[in-house]
């Protein structure tokens, strides 16, 4: 049986993190730090091109023709989505999480919506 490393001195009694740092709690919802974390979290998700496109269209409110094609690729769309979320955050018309959760619902991405709710809106 292999050891996971020395016990972490910061771990609560009876709990070891196997030599790793303790899990970092997410910042409180509504803070700028939380909004940055949401953008980073979404930017690093493994989302298909079609789902990214639906999310981007839900955020922009355009149901028409997409500005990017499959040829341009998923990475370009992820970068554009990240930029779009950053612009929404700076606009401050409404909280980023509110707008993003509505867009995820419109884009029919319930799993991602649930992940964001659990990760960033869970009761502490």
UniProtKB/TrEMBL annotation:
This is Tumor necrosis factor receptor superfamily member 6B. Keywords: Receptor. Residues 1-12 have a biased composition (Pro residues). Residues 1-32 are annotated as: Disordered.
């Amino acid at each position: 049986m292999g050891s996971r490393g020395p016990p972490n001195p910061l771990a609560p009694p009876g709990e070891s993190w196997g030599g790793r740092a303790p899990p970092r709690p997410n910042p409180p919802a509504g803070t700028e730090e939380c909004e940055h974390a949401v953008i980073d979290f979404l930017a690093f998700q493994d989302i298909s091109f079609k789902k990214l496109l639906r999310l981007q269209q839900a955020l922009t409110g355009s149901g028409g023709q997409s500005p990017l094609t499959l040829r341009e690729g998923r990475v370009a769309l992820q970068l554009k989505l990240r930029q779009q979320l950053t612009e929404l955050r700076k606009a401050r018309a409404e909280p980023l999480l509110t707008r993003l959760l509505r867009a995820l619902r419109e884009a029919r991405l319930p799993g991602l919506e649930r992940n964001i709710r659990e990760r960033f809106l869970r009761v502490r």
